[in-house]
Amino acid sequence: QARLVESGGGLVQPGGSLRLSCAASGSTLDDYAIGWFRQAPGKGREGIACISPIDGSTYHVPSVKGRFTIARDNAKNTVYLEMNSLKPEDTAVYYCAAKVGYYSSSAAAYDDWGQGAQVTVSS
């Protein structure tokens, strides 16, 4: 079981950037696929990016592709979500999650979750 902690959220102006970190303890993250999800008020949890443990392949949902990048640093046991050109509609609580095996964009496929990090994009 992976214990995950997100950090790096905050308030940013439209067009700005943030980098979220997902650090793990109790397990080695390179054994897990990691997904980043977000949940805006009144909406369901949306999968936005994920990365495989095996070959490092990634998936980004079309609404963030070209603006967000998921990457992992196995030496630091951390997965990052680099977010650029942020828009007000990116405002949400962002979660990282872990699963054994290949990645999935479905929240139901993931076993371990962090507590979430608030990202607010506003002028």
Q: Could you describe the 3D structure shown?
A:
Helices cover 0% and strands 50% of the residues. Strand 5 and strand 6 form a beta hairpin. By secondary structure, it is mostly beta strands. The strands form two sheets. Strands 2, 4, 5, 6, 9, 10 and 11 form a seven-stranded mixed β-sheet that branches. The chain has a four-stranded antiparallel β-sheet with strand order 1-3-8-7, with no helix packed on it. The chain has strands at residues 3-7, 10-12, 18-25, 32-39, 45-51, 58-60, 68-73, 78-83, 92-100, 112-113, 117-121. It has no helices and eleven strands. The radius of gyration is 13 Å and the shape is globular. The chain starts with a strand and ends with a strand. The model has no long low-confidence stretch (mean pLDDT 94).
Which value, in Å, is the CA radius of gyration? Answer: 13 Å
User: Topology as H/E string?
Assistant: EEEEEEEEEEE
Query: Which spans of ≥5 residues are poorly predicted at pLDDT below 50?
Result: none
Helix content: under 10%
Distance between the termini: 39 Å
Summed up, the helix count is 0
Based on helices, strands and strand pairing, what is the structural class?
A: mainly beta
